[in-house]
Amino acid sequence: MSGGHSRSGWWWLAGGGLLVAAGLIAGGMLFGGPEAQKLTAIASLLTALAALVPSYVGMRRQRKKITPADREAALADLAEDLRRQWAAEAAVRAVRRPAPIRVRWSATGHPVNASPAAVLGAAAVPSTPSRLNLSGDVADVAAKYRKLPNRQLVVLGEPGGGKSTMAMLLVLDLLADREPADPVPFLVNLAPWHPGEALHDWLARQLDREHAGLGGRAECLRFLASGRVLPVLDGFDELPGWHQQDALAAIDEAVDGGKPLILTCRTREYLDLLTRTRSPLANAAVVELAPVTAEDVRTFLDVSTDARPRWQPVLDRIRAEPGGELALALSTPLMVSLARTVYAEPGTEPAELLALPDREAVQRHLLEAFVPSLYPERDPRYPVADVVEWLTVLACYLGHWEINGIAWWELHYALPRFRSWLLRLLHPGIPLGGLLGLAVGGAAEHWLDLRLAWLPGAAAGLALGLLISFRWPPETPRPVSDEGVRSARRSALFPASNVAVLVALVTFVGLPEFITVPLPAGAWVLGLLAVLGAGATVWVVSYGHNLREQPLDFDREPGELVRADRRYARSHLPEQAWFGLVGALLAVAGLLGTAHSIVGLGGLLVVYLCLSLRLRFASATFALTRWLMAADGLLPRDLLDFLHDAHQRGVLRRAGPFYEFRHALLQVHLAERRWVNWV
Q1: Which of 1, 131, 273, 422 is the most buried (most CB within 10 A)?
Q2: 3-17, 163-177, 403-417: range with lowest mean pLDDT
């Protein structure tokens, strides 16, 4: 962090040199004759260059070198951030209240393990057993994971079997007593990854996006490649089937050399993949989660003396028929947790589960009753019928696009076709195409003598811009910090002041040497406006460019992310207002007949471009999207408040800036109620 004072010193040098140059110009113009003006012009130019060149070189050299101590501090900060994040998420999901469901695990008996010698080391395995001797429960998985020489673990389980919850609790346990030399576990959903991108490159992007304090993507890649960050990859089964073989090979290559790894996957999908490839991870232990036992179900559901009479018939059935349909339905942590939530209120009757014919009926009933049980009728903000419909729309949207995370900046894809065209017409590619076509048509009219060629040129350009808009990727949030905004402003002063000095030299010193006609008395005012206009134009352009180069900080909840993007959008207001004003003046000149019609139409297109760029920011697009969705009754107007509330109630879970359904089974169940199509 040293170098801030010296960097400000370079700015003082640049600013002082420019002030001296400006003083020389003013003094020569006001008090000197022709020869004095020439001498002051040369002196001011040399002074400006003497100040600007070394200051530019100095600023380029002021790069902070990252030391090993800086890296250790960054990892410690990352560990603390992740601990707070997942502790808060565990509290929302209530996975530790009153205690986690006891989930047992053991080395899988399926032929998907690497050899015991490869997993535990040859010295630890004197004989050659055919199966690893690993077992435990959710409480001791962290301690036993640390004993693995390569610290590579694959966790298999049935849908709803507790894989994601175990991964989260494992991360919390590893962070709770982490030593400085231990890797920092980074839990991420694997579904968005495409195996065409190297795993560590993708993970480095996620780390850099969500934790800006690590020093950039290159540093994140260094942490991953050196094993200082432990990837905890949740949901391997959520990758498309045709990608899974390449994905497993890429994961094995990424962790080659003893780098740590934790991977979760559904049992059936992993077995099918290994049956085809017969290539397990070379050094990973593979464990499998066992079904929740009837005794553990009774322990978890027998929560209080007041609730015990209501639960007694269910507990008696489970005790009498541990292999019956009801016990099998409640053999996963998800279903046991849903059952306790659905029948938490004193007036509910868990005994109605006894009347359901089979396992599937019990699970379907619990999924159907889960959301209404969390939204009592007395809540006027979110009527339960509306909540179910809104969640159904979100579930169908995720299913249609085959994604699992609700990113507010991508919700415009959920707009119905007609509404989506409204956003399409506000795309900046359309006015850009119109300006290009107008320029080509104007050139054709001038050089080829084609009358009014600018009109069909502009129309063709608008059509081309509309086609380009389909290939133009949408904007993502730009949560630049306040310090980043200030840094962009300061950095923009250098090229702006440089250009202003050069324009001043040309305007007040160079032009008078070549203009022989007498200038009007107020000509210096026009010259001053030219200097200010050139400096302002360069400043707003440079400021916008510098903002786009600032590091992003996605380590915040979605509502704060929206507010940060709005601040970023407001920081671009000067450049958009400046060019919009220029376009408006040109348009007025064209309408009043003081300029060619091409100039007027070009001005209108510039205004159109500035307005569309204003709406192009992710937060602005989201604001328009939620209003359009609310107008159709598809989603609530206060969408982020609704998503936050659903997360607090336990319907959704949060992973970084994304919301996800508590479980894929709940998402699929809601989507099956009423499929909404966006084709």
Answers
A1: 273
A2: 3-17
Spell out the residues 6+ positions from residue 369 whose beta carbon is closer than 8 angstroms to its own.
Answer: 342
Element (H, E) at 157: strand 152-157
Identify the residue whose tokens are 């992003």: 552
Is pLDDT above 80 for 534? no
* 161 and 218 co-located in one domain: yes
246-255, long-range: CB < 8 A, 24+ apart: 246/195, 247/190, 247/193, 247/195, 248/273, 248/277, 248/279, 248/281, 249/279, 250/195, 250/198, 250/199, 251/199, 251/281, 252/279, 252/281, 252/282, 254/198, 254/199, 254/200, 255/152, 255/281, 255/283, 255/284
C-alpha distances out from residue 268 to 157, 181, 261, 275, Å: 8, 36, 21, 10
- Token pair, residue 410, equals 């991508």
Asked if residue 579 lies in contact with residue 610, where contact means CB atoms within 8 angstroms, the answer is: yes
Asked if 128 and 358 count as a contact pair (C-beta separation under 8 A), the reply is: no
User: What is the domain count for the chain?
Assistant: 3
Residues 248 and 366 in one domain: no
CATH of the domain at 167: 3.40.50.300
Final residue belonging to a domain, choices 289, 318, 346: 289
Identify the burial level of 57 via C-beta atoms within 10 angstroms of its C-beta, where 0-12 means exposed, 13-18 middle and 19 or more buried: exposed
DSSP state of 596: -
Residue 179 burial (CB count, 10 A) = 5
Amino acid occupying residue 11: W
Q: At what angle do helices 241-254 and 199-210 cross, to 10 degrees?
A: 90
- The Cα angle at residue 638 between residues 421 and 670, in degrees rounded to 5: 75
Nearest CA among 342, 331, 397 for reference residue 366? 342
Cα(441)–Cα(664) distance, integer angstroms: 55
Examine the domain organization and report whether 109 and 154 are in the same domain. yes
DSSP state of 283: T
Encoding tokens for residue 228?
A: 């200082």
Residues 6+ apart with CB under 8 A from 585: 603
Nearest to 205 by CA among 81, 480, 214, 196: 214
Looking at 261, 289, 317, the residue that finishes a domain is 289
590 contacts 600 by C-beta, under 8 angstroms: yes
pTM, to two decimals: 0.77
58-72, 152-166, 321-335, 533-547: range with lowest mean pLDDT: 58-72
DSSP alpha helix (H) spans, 449-572: 454-469, 482-505, 511-514, 523-549, 558-571
Residue 30 domain boundaries: 4-61
| DSSP annotation string for 164-211 | HHHHHHHHHHHHHT--TTSPEEEEEESTT--TTS-HHHHHHHHHHHH-
Say whether 520 sits in a helix, a strand or coil.
coil
Three-class SS state of 562:
helix
Please provide the distance, in angstroms rounded to a whole number, between the alpha carbons at the two ends of the chain: 52
By the 10 Å C-beta count (0-12 exposed, 13-18 middle, 19+ buried), 634 is classed as: buried
274 confidence band (pLDDT: 50, 70, 90): very high
Residue (of 189, 258, 259) closest to 221 by Cα position: 259
Burial of 211 (0-12, 13-18, 19+ CB in 10 A): buried
